[in-house]
Amino acid sequence: MQTMFISEIFHSIQGEGLLTGVPSVFIRTSGCNLRCRWCDTPYTSWSPEGVERSVDEIMADIADFPTRHAVITGGEPLLMKDLPELTERLGDGGYHVTIETAGTVYADLHCDLASLSPKLSNSTPWKEENGKFAANHEKLRINLPVLGRFMAAYPYQLKFVVDRQEDLDEIESLLADLDNADLDNVDRNRVLLMPQGRTAEELSNRGAWVAEACKSRGFRYCPRVHIDLYGDTRGT
Fold first, then answer.
1. CA pair distance 169, 74, nearest whole angstrom
2. How far apart are CA 33 and CA 30, in angstroms?
3. Residues 163-201: tens digit of each pLDDT
4. By three-state DSSP, how is residue 82 classified?
5. Which backbone phi and psi does 97 adopt, to 5 degrees?
6. Helix runs in the chain, H state only
7. What is the spatial distance between Cα 149 and Cα 76, in angstroms, rounded to a whole number?
8. What is the C-alpha to C-alpha distance for residues 47 and 44, in angstroms, rounded to an integer?
9. DSSP per-residue letters across 155-187
10. If DSSP codes are grouped into helix, strand and coil, which group holds residue 134?
11. What pLDDT does residue 3 have?
């Protein structure tokens, strides 16, 4: 029996993106092919923690939560070989399924919302752990063909973590590359800018100028409501 490496399963509200505020069950996988320097779940990437769970066990774990919105997140959930089976089971069970992914790995899935979070250069860990993960992270962090496949196959949102002003030009360059791929023009109403931060204070400090960038460029501003409500804690 195959299993998935699961960090945590919990019931909360969706704090980010187009479904902000929707009560959801979160299935967080552990393990990631990237090492973002500001990762807010290092226990799924830098130091993966979790337990092996079968699809049957996961479905049993979530059965009593009073919601039919499921969010599969990570880490990088697309690394889990049983993910297609899990998403099919969720769909058959009447769940709306959001997949939260960096968009570096593709698989055919049941997916009602592909929440794509391409990692900008601000994520590369040049100094962390003497930079030993930086070159691999830089090589993998953007995969245009995978992003294009997700955007063509599923309803999507593009969610960018913004840390500095120069990130805005990087986002525009990436959107231009996607526009030039085998896609219709990227829907800017589905492009969300989220200030980088793990505390309410950090989010507030960057939020004002990120919001102004959204206003001037036609993007959506993406708050992190779970941080405002619960702080930077697990299971929220």
1. 27
2. 11
3. 999 999 999 999 999 988 766 679 999 999 999 887 878
4. coil
5. -110, 120
6. 55-62, 83-92, 134-140, 144-153, 167-179, 200-217, 225-230
7. 17
8. 6
9. -EEEEEEE-STTHHHHHHHHHHHHHTSSSSPP-
10. helix
11. 86
